[in-house]
Specification:
about 250 residues, alpha/beta, Rossmann fold, 7-stranded parallel sheet, 9 helices, about 45% helix, about 15% strand, fatty acid biosynthesis, fatty acid metabolism, 3oxo_ACP_reduc, 3-oxoacyl-[acyl-carrier-protein] reductase, EC 1.1.1.100
């Protein structure tokens, strides 16, 4: 896999899967654009990219803000010359059982995880259509496939992302744009690492191979789907979950 001369945009890139994904594309020669809600939060990933001699740009952007997203994407095109890959990784959780889930929590998750993907995907697709090429990769989840206790809002967004992925693949294929999604299982991100040991053990037990994934496992999937090796793959959802069934 080689991304020399390619510009790769990663949202939610400050930590966890987003950070690992940005580093992976940089390792493979890509020009990496990292985006997150706070510029300060991007300092660590930018330091690592620069230390590895990766050409990189950072943008503070709220994916729910359409004007900000459109401006960011235009700036990327102006400064880098193209938008070849976008990884719509930005997402949040605000859990609660159905009978107790606050409307504000429902709306917030829908806004970031679903509308944010729409905003970024649409802005990128317009540029890619002009280029006649591009790859859009969306972050779904096993929760979007199987559902999960206490995650009505999150599951709805991740199932919705699958629907958008398949629809975009049908709409954009003639313009040389491939669209796929990745559905991670239980991944050992910094946030998950802080969970109690018994909870981590329970998560491991749900997988036939009895372990949690690493952010790099998801980054590898994104890199493959963006590469020429996956040139005949579009409209699919790649589960990277260790065989877990919730």
């Amino acid at each position: 896999m080689n991304f020399n001369g390619k510009t790769v945009v990663v949202t939610g890139a400050a930590r966890g899967i987003g950070k690992a994904t940005a580093l992976k594309f940089g390792e493979k020669g890509g020009k990496v654009v990292v985006c997150d809600i706070s510029m300060d939060s991007l300092s660590e990933v930018m330091e690592e990219l620069k230390a590895n001699q990766v050409e990189a740009l950072a943008f503070e952007v709220d994916v729910t803000d359409r004007e900000a997203v459109e401006k960011m994407m235009k700036d990327v095109k102006d400064q880098c010359g193209s938008v070849d890959v976008i990884v719509n990784n930005a997402g949040i959780t605000a859990d609660g059982r159905l009978v107790k889930l606050e409307e504000e929590a429902f709306d917030k998750v829908i806004d970031v995880n679903l509308k944010g993907v729409f905003n970024c995907g649409q802005a990128a697709a317009r540029i890619m259509a002009e280029q006649g090429s591009g790859v859009i990769l969306n972050a779904s989840s096993v929760v979007g496939i199987y559902g999960n206790f206490g995650q009505t809002n999150y599951a709805a967004t991740k199932w919705g992302v699958i629907g958008m992925t398949k629809t975009w693949a049908k709409e954009l294929g003639k313009q040389g744009i491939r669209v796929n999604a990745v559905a991670p299982g239980f991944i050992l991100t910094p946030m998950v690492e802080k969970m109690p040991e018994n909870v981590l053990d329970m998560m491991k037990d749900k997988s036939p191979i009895k372990k949690l994934g690493k952010p790099e496992d998801i980054a590898n999937a994104y890199a493959f789907l963006a590469s020429e090796e996956a040139g005949f793959i579009t409209g699919t959802v790649l589960s990277v979950d260790g065989g877990v069934v919730l």
